[in-house]
């Protein structure tokens, strides 16, 4: 008989769906433990190392793709190439090897211990997470000074922000990861997961170790349509690749791990007959659950519920002392392109953030709400003089507004409207934060352009909750749509199933920091727990 060279004919101990921040790590750890592991990714090549070749002319002759160069981060918003999810998602996101880690800014902030102790269940408290955090640090390098010449470029916005936030508002200047537990009145340099002046992330680290193992296989360009199951047990997955459907089977004690991200994993559960019965009825009416009788649906309204994203506001600031900077995709000045190509030096080694700061608001009932500001080297939209910069203000942990993963008429997932500001306290808290830092503006040379410096608290609430180019946009820090206790159990197993797991942003509660670091730690922890089962 002919030799079977394609091991997809075999059965797998673990089928991991989605090669993003979490999926790559879980697949690496399970294959390291000797499990026959198949990692399925709907998207295609991204970084040069994955076969990605999309690049501007000035990178011709290198092995870099646009994904590798931190300074080309923002170009993704103007031209997505084939890196993003397009019509598969009602939001902006990376559908490519690396998922959103291949298109994000690479900001890499460790969550404070209090996030684990306040918002996670048993087995996930800060003491349980120390090992997982140490594992992430040992695999994934990070830096606050990425240029090989150790010069930080275009720092006039940093200097102005420091005058304002540290000298004016009294925040402490700290190394934000060495002091990860401090999230009240701290200011510091951005920290990225870059390595040697290039984009880092799990594709450059965990995926490379997995690829060396014979028990591991990555199949890109392969979308999972649904999990196949017999009752509460998954038996495999149905995929589509180049319009051809194919089944991948699990071994007897095998597991499916969904790591498609906080919008796609709930969608996939629903398309597999697991979720809110009202939604399952609609999917069935469209003929998409034909092989599952309603008696084998697993009704769970927590699938896709309590979706979170950071509500954000862009505040445009101007100062005669600032020189703005915008990276160019096609045509960087030779004095900035050459040092990058030759020795990974210059401003193309960073994605344009110059500082970040954090604060908290403590409510009388004990709730603690996290707030974050991140400052960029350029203005935005109507405010792009050579002297403007953008402050991006987020509400983070402890916010009360959440939405749902909503499927449209084509069953494409996206956020429901209540995701932002559906609870009035959130806007009050964020406005309080903005008002308090605005009080310190006179200490700096900065003038806000889109919100008046003397705006009242009520005016700020109105501004941040009224959709505009500067407010109520999607930050795409999706999380929390398959929460512990209701959607998955403490071992990340979907409640009501025997062997279907969710490990990605879906299980991570709203964090005090940008989500990638916390999602990677969650993947390390989930791998430990799954391997113990
Ligand atoms: C523009 C942008 C900038 C960001 N900047 C930062 C930042 O600087 N710092 C930070 O911490 N976070 C940032 N984030 C967020 C961060 O990247 C994400 O939170 C994180 O990558 C999510 O990880 P995940 O494992 O949940 O899924 P993802 O990284 O989203 O990966 C999911 C993968 O699964 C695949 N997939 C989904 N469904 C299927 C299916 N059915 N079949 C096959 N494959 C499937 C997708 O194609 C995708 O590749 C940013 C996000 C965006 C969009």
Notes on the protein architecture:
This protein has 533 residues and is α/β, with parallel strands linked by helices. The chain has 2 domains: 10-108 and 202-307 and 479-532, FAD/NAD(P)-binding domain; 153-188 and 311-395 and 421-465, Cholesterol Oxidase, domain 2, CATH 3.30.410.10. It contains 12 helices and 19 strands. Strands 1, 2, 5, 6, 7, 8 and 19 form a 7-stranded mixed beta sheet that branches. A 7-stranded mixed beta sheet has the order 3-4-13-14-15-12-18, with helices on one face. Strands 11-16-17 form a 3-stranded antiparallel beta sheet, covered by helices on one side. The longest helix is centred in the last third of the chain and has 18 residues, at 515-532. The protein is globular. The protein starts with 10 loop residues before the first strand and ends with a helix. Residues 1-5 have low confidence and may be disordered. The structure holds flavin-adenine dinucleotide.
Q: How many beta-strand runs?
A: 19
Please write the CATH class name of the largest domain.
Alpha Beta
* Shape type: globular
Tell me what portion of residues adopts beta-strand conformation.
15-25%
CATH architecture of the largest domain: 3-Layer(bba) Sandwich
In terms of quaternary structure, the protein is: single chain
CATH superfamily of the largest domain: FAD/NAD(P)-binding domain
The SS-based structural class is alpha/beta
What average pLDDT do the residues reach?
Answer: 97
CATH topology annotation of the largest domain = FAD/NAD(P)-binding domain
Helix percentage range: 10-25%
| Sheet with most strands | 7 strands, mixed
- Enumerate how many helices there are, as a single number: 12
Radius of gyration: 23 Å
Instruction: Give the termini distance in whole angstroms.
Output: 38 Å
Bound molecules: flavin-adenine dinucleotide
Q: How many discrete domains?
A: 2
């Amino acid at each position: 008989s002919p030799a079977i060279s394609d091991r997809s004919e075999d059965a797998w101990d673990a089928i991991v769906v989605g090669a993003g921040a979490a999926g790559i790590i879980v697949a690496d750890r399970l294959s390291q433990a000797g499990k026959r592991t198949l990692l399925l990714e709907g998207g295609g090549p991204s970084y040069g190392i994955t076969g990605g070749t999309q690049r501007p002319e000035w990178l011709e002759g290198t092995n870099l793709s646009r994904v590798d160069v931190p300074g080309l981060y923002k170009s993704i918003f103007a031209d997505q190439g084939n890196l993003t999810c397009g019509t598969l998602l009602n939001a902006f996101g990376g559908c490519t090897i690396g998922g959103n880690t291949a298109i994000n800014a690479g900001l890499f902030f460790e969550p404070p211990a209090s996030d684990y102790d306040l918002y996670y269940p048993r087995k996930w408290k800060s003491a349980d997470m120390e090992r997982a955090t140490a594992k992430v640090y040992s695999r994934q390098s990070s830096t606050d000074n990425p240029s090989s010449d150790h010069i930080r470029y275009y720092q006039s916005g940093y200097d102005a922000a420091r005058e304002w936030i540290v000298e004016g508002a009294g925040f402490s200047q700290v190394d934000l990861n060495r002091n990860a537990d401090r999230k009240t009145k701290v200011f510091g340099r951005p920290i990225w997961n870059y390595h040697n002046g290039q984009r880092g992330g799990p594709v450059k680290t965990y995926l490379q170790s997995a690829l060396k193992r014979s028990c591991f296989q990555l199949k890109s360009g392969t979308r999972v349509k649904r999990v196949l199951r017999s009752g509460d047990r998954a038996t495999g997955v149905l995929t589509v690749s180049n319009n051809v459907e194919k089944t991948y089977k699990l071994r007897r004690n095998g597991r499916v791990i969904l790591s498609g991200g906080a919008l796609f994993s709930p969608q996939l559960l629903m398309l597999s007959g697991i979720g809110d019965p009202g939604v399952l009825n609609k999917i069935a009416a469209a003929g998409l659950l034909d092989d599952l009788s309603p008696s084998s649906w697993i009704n769970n309204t927590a699938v896709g519920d309590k979706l979170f994203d950071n509500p954000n506001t862009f505040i445009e600031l101007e100062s005669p002392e600032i020189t703005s900077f915008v990276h160019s995709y096609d045509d960087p000045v030779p004095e900035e392109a050459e040092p990058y190509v030759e020795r990974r030096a210059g401003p193309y080694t960073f994605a344009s953030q110059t500082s970040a700061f954090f604060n908290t608001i403590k409510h009388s009932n004990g709730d603690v709400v996290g707030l974050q500001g991140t400052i960029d080297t350029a203005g935005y939209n109507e405010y792009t003089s050579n002297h403007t910069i953008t402050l991006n203000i987020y509400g983070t942990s402890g916010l009360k507004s959440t939405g749902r993963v909503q499927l449209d008429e084509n069953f494409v997932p996206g956020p429901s409207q209540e995701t932002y500001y559906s609870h009035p306290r959130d806007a009050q808290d964020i406005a309080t934060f903005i008002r308090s830092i605005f009080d310190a503006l006179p200490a700096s040379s900065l003038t806000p352009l889109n919100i008046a410096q003397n705006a009242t608290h009520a005016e700020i609430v109105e501004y941040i909750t009224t959709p505009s180019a500067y407010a109520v946009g999607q930050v795409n820090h999706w999380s929390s749509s398959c929460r512990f206790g209701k959607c998955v159990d403490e071992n990340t197993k979907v409640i009501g199933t025997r062997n279907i797991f969710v490990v990605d942003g879906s299980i991570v509660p709203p964090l005090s920091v940008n989500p990638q670091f916390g999602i990677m730690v969650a993947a390390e922890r989930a791998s430990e727990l799954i391997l113990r089962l």
